[in-house]
Amino acid sequence: ISSAVAFDILPLKLHPFSQSTPTGLDCVGWKRRISSPVITDGALDKTALTDDVGSEEDLYEDFRSSNHRYGHPGGGGEQLAINELISDGSVVYAEALWDHVTMDDQELGFKAGDVIEVMDATNKEWWWGRILDSEGWFPASFVRLRVNQDEPMEDYPLKVEGGKEDDSSSGTRRFGMGQTTKDQMRTNVINEIISTERDYIKHLKDICEGYIKQCRKRADMFTEEQLKTIFGNIEDIYRCQKKFVKALEKKFNKDHPHLSEVGSCFLEYQTEFQIYSEYCNNHPNACMELSRLTKVNKYVYFFEACRLLQKMIDISLDGFLLTPVQKICKYPLQLAELLKYTNPQHRDFKDVEAALNAMKNVARLINERKRRLENIDKIAQWQSSIEDWEGEDVLVRSSELIYSGELTKISHPQAKSQQRMFFLFDHQLVCCKKDLLRRDILYYKSRINMDDMEILDVEDGKDKDFNISVKNAFKLHCRDSEEVHLFCTKKPEQKQRWLKAFENERRQVQLDQETGFSITEVQKKQAMLNASKQHHSGKPKAVTRPYYDFLMRQKHPTLPTTLPQQQVFMLAEPKRKPSNFWQNISRLTPFRK
C-alpha cells in the first residue's frame, strides 16, 4: 500500500514540522470530526453567539453549508521537504522537547534535550530515528527540528590542497554578504525566536478574545469557576508575553540579526515566567472539564463557532490550551542553540549563558510544583486511612511529606514514654499510634505546629527538664510558651536524619513563601473528595481517570504496534523516576511542538 494511500486510511493528526513555530499551530491540518468553513469579514456578527442556547448549532450549520474551509496555508509542504532532504542523503536533526520513556524495543527512548537523527518522516505521527547505536520509532510531536541542520564549518578544521588542515581559515569562512557561517547560524536562531514569539502572541490573543470573551457572554453556559478551570491564568500569561515580545523587538537588529542582544530580555522576565507553573499544574483539570462539557453537543457547537468567528486555524480548543505548556519547554532548547552559535566575544554571550540557566531553573521550578500537586492526592489518601482523625485536614496547611518514622515520645509530668509514628509535613508534625494487633492500622493522636517550634539537640545523659537519662534525643521547644516535647530514636543515625528533616521542613516553608507556592481551595477539596470515595469503596481509584479518558479518545496511528509509555510533561529537568500516573496518561497525549 502506498504511503499516500496509507495516510488517507490512518486516523492521523497532521503535526507541525516547521521550526519557525513554537507550537506548530500555523501548519496543522488536524483531521476533525466536523468541518470548518471560511468566514469572510462581515459575514456574521459576533453577537450571534449571545443568542439562545440552541443558536450555536444553527450557526454552525450555516458555516457548514459553505463550500469553503478556513485553514492555514502550508500543512504538508514542509513534511515533504523533510523527506526529500532525507532521500537526498542529507542528515536531519531534531531535539527532544520531553522525555520519551518506553518499554517497547521498537521505540526510541530519549531524554529532553537529546539530539535525534531523523531517518524516516514518512509517517506524520511517528518518525524513525537514531541516537548513537539505537534506532526506533518516536512521537514526532515530542521533538523540535533544529533551526540549523548543518554544523558551522568553523567547528571543523578546513582541508587545503595537499591534505593538510588549515586552522587559520576556519574562523574566517564567510557566508553571503560578509557574514561568517556561525553568524548566519545565529541569525537563523534569532529569527526563529522572534517569529515564534509573534506567532505565540497571536495564539494567546485568539484564545483570550476568541474563546474567553465569548464564554463570558454566556453566563447560562459557563460559571466563572468553570472558566477559571478551563483557561487557568492564560490571560496573565498573555499580558506577560506581550511585554516580553516588546522587549525582544527592541533588542532585535533587523539589518543584522546576528548582532541582536536578546539574552537580557529572558533574564528580565525570568521571574514573570514562573506564572507558567500555575497554568501547567492546572492543565489536566482543564482537559477534564473540557472532556465533560464536550459530551454535550451545544458546547461542541459553541466552541467551534468561537474558533470560526475568530478565524483561528483548524485545531480544537484543547490543542490551543496546550501551547503555553509547550512554550515553556521550548525556551531552554532555543537558548541552548543560540548559545552554541554565539561567540564568547559577542556582547550577548554572557547574558545568553545566564538566560539559559535561568530558563532551566524556571522549568525545574515548574516541575517541582507539578510534583507537589501530584502529592496532594497521596496526602489526602493517607489521611483518609487514619482512624479517629480529629481537627482540620492536613492539606489545610501542608502539601509535602518531608519525613516519617517511629520515635519514642516522652511527656510531662511523669516522664511517661510512648512509641508513636510521626509524620513530618511542612508546617506540622502529626502523631499516630499503631494498632496493637494490626500494625498497618494507625490512629490519630495529636499534632504539633512546627511554625512555633525550635529544634534542640540533646546530648546523651541526664536531661534536666525531664529528670531522666536519655540517648539519641532531641527536643521541640515552643517559642511562645513553656511547651517542650522530648523525643528519642533507637540509633544515632536515625536522630541525625530527623534533625536534617526538620531543617528541610523549615527550608521548604521558606522556599514556598519566596516562590508563592500554594494550593487552591478547589484542589484541596477535590483531593479530599477523591480520597473519601476511594476509602469508602475500598478499591484503588484512578483520580485522574477523566483526563485519561479524554486522551484515550484522541486519534492515533497504527504504528508502532504497541503504544508507548512516555513521560511528556517533564520540562527538561530535573531527571527523576516518572510516576505511574504520567506514564499512563502520556501514552496518548496529543502534544504538539
From TrEMBL:
Q: Domain (SH3): give its ranges.
A: 89-148
A biological-process GO annotation: intracellular signal transduction
**Residue ranges annotated for the PH domain, each copy included:** 400-507
What's a single GO MF annotation on this record?
Answer: guanyl-nucleotide exchange factor activity
**Residue span(s) of domain DH:** 185-369
UniProt cross-references to SMART domains, sorted A to Z: PH, RhoGEF, SH3
Per UniProt, the keywords (alphabetical) are: Cytoplasm, Guanine-nucleotide releasing factor, SH3 domain
Q: Which Gene3D superfamilies does this entry report, sorted A to Z? A: Dbl homology (DH) domain (1.20.900.10), Pleckstrin-homology domain (PH domain)/Phosphotyrosine-binding domain (PTB) (2.30.29.30), SH3 Domains (2.30.30.40)
- The superkingdom of the source organism is Eukaryota
Q: What is this protein called?
A: ARHG4 factor
Any idea where this protein resides? Cytoplasm
Q: SUPFAM superfamilies in the record, alphabetically?
A: DBL homology domain (DH-domain) (SSF48065), PH domain-like (SSF50729), SH3-domain (SSF50044)
- One CC-aspect GO term: cytoplasm
InterPro entries (UniProt xref): DBL_dom_sf (IPR035899), DH_dom (IPR000219), GDS_CDC24_CS (IPR001331), PH-like_dom_sf (IPR011993), PH_domain (IPR001849), SH3-like_dom_sf (IPR036028), SH3_domain (IPR001452), SOS1_NGEF_PH (IPR055251)
Q: Which Pfam families match?
A: RhoGEF (PF00621), SH3_1 (PF00018), SOS1_NGEF_PH (PF22697)
Q: Where is the composition biased (Basic and acidic residues)?
A: 156-167
Q: Where is this region: Disordered?
A: 156-178
